[in-house]
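User: Quick sanity check before I run a bigger batch. Here is a single chain. Can you write out its predicted 3D structure?
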Amino acid sequence: MISSEQVARLARSIGSEEMPAGKLAVLRRLDPTKVLPPEAWHLLGGFGLENNDAERAVAGLSSLMALARMSGPALPIGQALGERPGDDAKYAEIRFIRLLRARGLSELMHEARQAIKWCVTHGRRIDFTGYNGFAAFILAAAIDTQASRVDAIAHSIARDYFRRSEDDNTKPESK
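Assistant: Done. Predicted structure follows.
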């Protein structure tokens, strides 16, 4: 698979102001279960991947990064989905659980796109990097080679999501 340094490099490349708008548009629409467009192969070329599943998973990750591209401080995905700033709603718990349970590239991409679109709509920028970050979850769950690793990352993401919910439930109500 790819290292966290490579994930950060991919995120910087996609987030760069020099990334052409047309290339971003193609990446946003990319379906990693189908034939990959040249724009995806240009990004994949520097990773030295020799495995079809790994290439498709990284292409899917690049699509999600392009979809989530926005400025501002980035939050871990669990926090971004679980936080309730002001009167804003958090991401529906049932959808969140479906995201964490998604396995395989097709199902995972569907659930991850829903979560990212929600974050973009609510102005929440996602941090894809880190050992237990969203990129690690996407790559592990798409390929599903180490179920224990996928579960460990999912638990970390859930902890962030539900920690925010718990904080909301422990605040005293104002009169």
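The radius of gyration is 16 Å.

User: Great, the batch can go ahead then.
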